[in-house]
Amino acid sequence: MSEKTLFEKIIDGEVPGDFVHKDDICVAIKDINPKAPVHYLIVPRKPIPGIHELDENEDWPIVTHLFKVAKGLAESESCEGYRLQFNVGEKGGQIIPHLHLHLMGWK
Ligand code: 5GP
């Protein structure tokens, strides 16, 4: 079995994480090094490495769900403006090989 990603360890409680949302499909945690007043990472429980590794037949609903959760969190944090971002691949700035949507918000 391959080693768990950092986000799997956070989801499983093996590494501390500041959770702001949990459901059956994903969790959201505060980014440890925030680049905006609100900076959350919305992470599917399924450890999909990234956008390119999505299973065409079953994973797109997960992506839709991540966007819905991000929108709800931005609203509950009263963000006036926000950015939703997937970093893809090392050259695209992706450090952690477990799909995650950045929510960066400003009030
Ligand atoms: P990426 O660059 O892979 O798109 O984003 C990874 C994000 O994870 C970065 O914004 C980084 O600050 C954040 N991060 C790295 N290590 C940890 C950690 O241990 N806990 C949390 N909550 N965030 C982390």
Please supply descriptive tags for the structure shown above:
single chain, 107 residues, alpha+beta, five-stranded antiparallel β-sheet, 25% strand, globular, binds guanosine-5'-monophosphate
Task: Kindly provide the radius of gyration, computed on alpha-carbon positions and rounded to a whole number of angstroms.
Answer: 13 Å
Given the structure, what is the number of helices? 2
The whole-number mean of residue pLDDT values reads: 97
Order of helices and strands: HEEEHEE
Distance, first to last CA: 43 Å
Shape category: globular
Q: pLDDT under 50 segments (min length 5)?
A: none
Which strands sit side by side, in order, in the main sheet? 1-2-3-5-4
Considering DSSP H and I runs of 4 or more, what fraction of the residues is helical?
10-25%
Estimated share of beta-strand residues: 25-35%
Bound molecules: guanosine-5'-monophosphate
Number of strands: 5
Largest sheet: 5 strands, antiparallel
Main structural class:
alpha+beta
Tell me about this structure.
- With 107 residues, this protein is of the alpha+beta class.
- It is built from 2 helices and 5 strands.
- It has helices at 6-11, 60-76, and strands at residues 19-22, 26-30, 38-44, 81-85, 101-106.
- The protein has a 5-stranded antiparallel beta sheet with strand order 1-2-3-5-4, covered by helices on one side.
- Strand 1 and strand 2 (26-30) form a beta hairpin.
- The mean pLDDT is 97.
- Bound molecules: guanosine-5'-monophosphate.
